[in-house]
Amino acid sequence: MRVTLNWLRKRLTGLFAGAGLGAQDTAVLVDILLDAEASGRRTHGLIRVRPMLKHLATSGHQPGRWLKEEAACALYDGQGGLGYLVTYACTLKVMELLERSPLAVVGARGATHTGPIGYFAGQCARQGLVTFFFTNCSPFAAPYGAREAILGTNPITIGLPGDPEPVVVDLATTATTYGECRVALEEGRSLPEGVALDSRGAPTTDPAEAIHGGALLPFGGHKGYALALAIQVLTTALTGASAIPGAGEDYGLSIIALRKDLLVGGESYDRITAEVLRAVKAARPLDQSKPVLIPGERSAGLRRQALESGIEIEPQLYEKLFGKAEEAQ
User: Fold this and answer.
1) pLDDT digits (tens, 9 = 90+) for 129-142
2) pLDDT 10s digits, 169-218
3) Which InterPro entries does this one have (predicted)?
4) 80: CB partners within 8 A, 6+ apart
């Protein structure tokens, strides 16, 4: 079912407003969800709507509170509220702190799933800010050499000002993610081989086995595991979040940010970054039909395409969210 973004915005706004979420929070949340879906991050888009509505029905959305606010750092307690909105609040705080300080560190605890972090890193990069986001989640990932899930998928996201679009490096430390497993389940697909274990510790391509009693494997073996472990500490020990959080409970977030002109002038940063990007784009591709892309470039292209022609929603997901298919304007 193909729908326009305007149509989808109206329908999602109605769902969240009907669930009791305030108008401002609804507008922010819908923007984030639409961007995720439009930019190809389906793992953080519409598939997250029903769990959010369930959360609002059972727990509501408690406004967070700032536990610490200093010249260059701040700590936020999400108080169990929607993680997308927790990350949004922390992103705004980073921007605020960097108006008066060249460096800033912001942390959060008490969040649910923290959302498509690339969205927030991109927003900062468009303001001339370099950011490093670290987030965690409940255990879905096995440490290297283990058969059970102990760590989260623990993504790292780096946002860099660039032209014409920011450079956004956004990746989980596992070979696949919980969200990708959810999408595979919705679409009736198997996982690639070598990315997950079942509850017995045997390799599996069944997404249900992977996330229900099984474990996801780190990308790059010991390298992804080491990075995941470091992020687990950065998002918990620095923020006071649970060391090993339960499902959707007390996730942690850490942001380290700086202005692009911290060490050299902004013009120097822009010139050197442009030189690096030109060199990368000029690299001879293995396949002439597939040019070398900058991280974030594919998502930007999909976003432009979605603005022009809308997005396709799987019929099963459409019906779960909106009921029987109708003509979407």
Assistant:
1) 999 999 999 999 99
2) 999 999 999 999 999 998 899 999 999 999 999 999 999 999 999 999 99
3) Mal/L-sulf/L-lact_DH-like_ah, Mal/L-sulf/L-lact_DH-like_NADP, Mal/L-sulfo/L-lacto_DH-like_sf, Malate/L-lactate_DH-like
4) 59, 62, 110, 111, 112, 249, 250
What are 146's two structure tokens? Answer: 């283990």
What per-residue string of b and e applies to 30-46 under the rule 16 or more CB within 10 Å gives b? Answer: bebbbbbbbbbbbbbbb
State the pTM of this model.
0.94
Q: Is the pLDDT of residue 327 over 80?
A: no
281 part of a folded domain: no
The CATH number of residue 316's host domain is 1.10.1530.10
Question: Has residue 288 been placed in a domain?
Answer: no
Q: Give the number of domains in the chain.
A: 3
How many Cα atoms are found within 13 Å in the side-chain-facing hemisphere of 272?
Answer: 9
